[in-house]
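pinning this so it doesn't scroll away 📌
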Amino acid sequence: MAGKLAGKVAIVTASTDGIGFAIARRLAQDGAKVMVSSRKQNNVDNAVKALKQENLNVEGLVCHVAKKEDRSKLFNETVKKFGGIDVLVSNAASSTYFGPTLNTPEDSYDKMFDLNVKSSFMLCKEVVPEMEKRGSGSMILVSSIAAYTPMSMIGIYSLTKTALLGLNKVLAPELAAHNIRINCIAPGIIKTKFSNALTQNEDALNVALSTIPLGRLGTPEECSGAASFLASDDSAYMTGETIVVSGGMTGRL
């Protein structure tokens, strides 16, 4: 039985571990051809090997999404290997400062906005011609529950994730004219390397768990189903929306 993404080609950035890896795996399990990417060749090789051992149709490429030449190569190689691009999942992000927001160094501020926001915008902008060739497309931005309820010690990171919600709303009507949809996923507190600073501190973890009605942290796999839904025709009448995957944590702008 063909999966719901059979015939689709997807790019997932920062997809060699954590949420990105889980999304790449799920899209491939559901029938898509997937281009895996991250900044380190070794990580790309390991991820591709693991997924190919599951008989999934994936390839991999090193890509620093803040570099135009890397983004161009990512698109060109995906088209060369798979014939086109139907789905873009922009997952790459960084948090380069932990502490009071007003103490954030300027270079950390710039790095976070450059990677977390500008790169997502440029990826969306630059992939449009390839999606137009296919007649349609789906873009998925990975935001965060911190977009709704900023976390004090990662204030600028939280701000960049709020900006992605705005980018989603801004681009939705413009992309609709090209028959391209864009939506967000806002994960809650997910068990990944990225959240280690929180999850390995017992006091901080207990405080976090007290805010989650389901009483536990999420897993990367629990974010992947939302991505597959947004990539598929099951969500054909959805654009400009955000799916919050947070175990019940409340989020409201």
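📌 and the second one:
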Amino acid sequence: MADHKESKMEELAHKIHSKISSPSSSSDSDEDKRSHARAVALKAKVYRLFGREKPLHQVLGAGKPADILLWRNKKLSGGVLGGVTSLWFLFEMLDYHLITLICHLMILALSVLFLWSNASNFINKSCNP
């Protein structure tokens, strides 16, 4: 009986060794191939960041924001980084406040609109004799 168990163990070890050494051999059944494919898929999931299945670009929305965050458009990403850094510098280092910034931007916009409207009156004026 002990010999029978040893022979079964040897047979099992031989099957495992043959499957490991040649997983795509012709002796594999369809079920073995499917289970092998599932094991490979599970193994691939384990090695991806946070176990995700989609690429990171698709996870982020696959649009302009994803391109900016992944630095695919380097000029735009650099501009966004520069703008955010300047805002951080204004608010944190110079102790500037958001309400003050909004008020100054509105005053600037009002001044530009006022000058534009006055300049357009002088430019579009025709001389009548």
